């Protein structure tokens, strides 16, 4: 049953929290680069702009660009013009670290948006934190990034004060998917596969723990090599296991062919994954047999949120060639959060940027709060988004269709 109503998320805001509205007036001309005056503030964007995951990365870059254009058009920060500098990490941690170093070296950079991959974020966090440069990811979901390696034991320690994110984490996403698969899809026997990477393995782990807790059976587990596209051996294992569903921790370049090959092997069962497979590219790769496959993704469907109407219209008017994809709204909100933190710092310093602007912007980010594209945007004591909304999507024909929105009930 389709559930369109959203769960209200409330969070107590810290004293002095900055409350602003992200959605400005519609820009029919797709934005303007003309800002309020003489100071240029650069916001770095790191994402995979080429390669298998470029669809998601380009959606992140374009949405960040749109936020800066909107801020300049509205003169959100008097005397400041914003622009982005986008760098391609190709989903590789080593490239992400190099990009972080490059952004730190540019004194005009006061914030960074990205990356897409949690494994890339791990390589960037210390570089940014040492420079007191704030980083806001619209897409990272690995819990260790904000709560430390021992978060599952209840020992949560924030590793880096400069790191924030606008999407919820796999500590919520994996269990939410498990509850849906077991309780509503009525699947009791799962084969779990992951790509051995930080995001995929972590997501598969939180799904598995919750599925077992609910009484589900693990029919088998397997790790795949993300560099290959031949999954015939694991597809045969899935068929022989008797599983009635597959859960895959990883991203769409592998998930699409994996789904197709599992069906071709004779296992006519759905593949379920996280936000890493929620892309039109998955459906293209998986083919017609992917009908009924499921994905969870962060937030409610952007197209159904009243707060997102202006974003969707402005994105279209701006003429970007690529879709905003799963993280467009979160990228816009992440960029807007940096803009609001800069605004706070400028206002507190008599209309000018202070010498220690980076440190001040990072400090201001903790109390940023506004009504964004994706709903209420604010951060908890770990730098995590207070909005824990998630949605289950199902492949219907050539599109993803929302099935249920809600959050994990632990």
Structure overview:
By secondary structure, this protein is of the alpha/beta class. It has 2 domains: 19-168 and 301-377, Rossmann fold (3-Layer(aba) Sandwich), CATH 3.40.50.2300; 171-298 and 390-406, 3-Layer(aba) Sandwich (Rossmann fold), CATH 3.40.50. The protein is built from 12 helices and 15 strands. The chain has helices spanning 54-74, 93-105, 118-130, 144-147, 170-184, 198-213, 232-241, 252-264, 280-286, 309-318, 328-348, 357-365, and strands at 18-21, 39-47, 80-88, 109-113, 135-137, 163-165, 189-194, 217-223, 245-249, 271-273, 294-298, 368-372, 375-377, 390-396, 399-406. The strands form 3 sheets. The chain has a 7-stranded mixed β-sheet with strand order 8-7-9-10-11-14-15, with helices on both faces. It has a 5-stranded parallel β-sheet with strand order 3-2-4-5-6. Strands 1-12-13 form a 3-stranded mixed β-sheet, covered by helices on one side. β5 (135-137), α4 (144-147) and β6 (163-165) form a beta-alpha-beta unit. α2 (93-105) packs parallel to α3 (118-130) and α8 packs parallel to α9 (280-286). The protein starts with 17 loop residues before the first strand and ends with a strand. Mean pLDDT is 91; it is low at 1-37.
């Amino acid at each position: 049953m389709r559930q369109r109503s959203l769960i209200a998320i409330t969070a107590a805001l810290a004293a002095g929290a900055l409350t602003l509205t992200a959605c400005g007036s519609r820009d029919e001309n797709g934005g303007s680069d003309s800002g309020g005056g003489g100071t240029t503030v650069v916001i770095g964007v790191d994402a995979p702009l080429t390669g298998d995951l470029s669809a998601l990365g380009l959606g992140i870059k374009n949405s960040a660009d749109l936020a800066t254009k909107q801020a300049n058009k509205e003169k959100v920060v008097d005397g400041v013009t914003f622009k982005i500098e986008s760098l391609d990490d190709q989903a590789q941690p080593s490239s992400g670290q190099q990009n972080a170093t490059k952004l730190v070296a540019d004194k005009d950079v006061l914030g960074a948006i990205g990356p897409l991959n949690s494994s890339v974020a791990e390589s960037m966090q210390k570089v940014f934190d040492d420079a007191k440069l704030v980083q806001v990811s619209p897409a990272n979901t690995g819990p260790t990034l904000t709560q430390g390696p021992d978060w599952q034991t209840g020992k949560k320690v924030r590793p880096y004060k400069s790191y924030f994110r606008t999407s919820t984490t796999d500590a919520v996403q994996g269990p939410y998917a498990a509850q849906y698969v077991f309780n509503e899809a009525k699947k009791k026997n799962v084969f779990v596969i992951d790509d051995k990477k930080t995001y995929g393995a972590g997501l598969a782990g939180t799904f598995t723990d919750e599925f077992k807790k609910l009484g589900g059976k693990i029919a088998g587990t397997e790790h795949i090599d993300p560099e290959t596209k031949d999954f015939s051996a694991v597809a045969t294992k899935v068929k022989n296991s008797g599983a009635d569903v597959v859960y895959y921790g990883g991203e769409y370049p592998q998930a699409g062919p994996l789904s197709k090959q599992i069906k071709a092997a004779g296992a006519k069962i759905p593949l379920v994954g996280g936000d890493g497979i929620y892309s039109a590219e998955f459906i293209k790769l998986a083919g017609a047999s992917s009908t009924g496959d499921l994905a969870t993704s962060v937030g409610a469907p952007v197209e159904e949120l009243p707060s997102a109407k202006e974003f969707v219209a402005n994105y279209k008017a701006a003429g970007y060639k690529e879709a905003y994809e799963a993280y467009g709204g979160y990228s816009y909100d992440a960029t807007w959060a940096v803009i609001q933190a800069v605004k706070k710092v400028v206002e507190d310093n008599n209309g000018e940027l202070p010498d220690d602007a980076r440190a001040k912007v990072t400090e201001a980010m903790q109390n940023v709060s506004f009504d964004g594209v994706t709903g209420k945007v604010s951060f908890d004591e770990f730098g995590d988004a207070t909005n824990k909304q998630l949605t289950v999507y199902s492949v219907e024909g050539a599109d993803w269709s929302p099935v249920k929105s809600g959050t994990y009930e632990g």
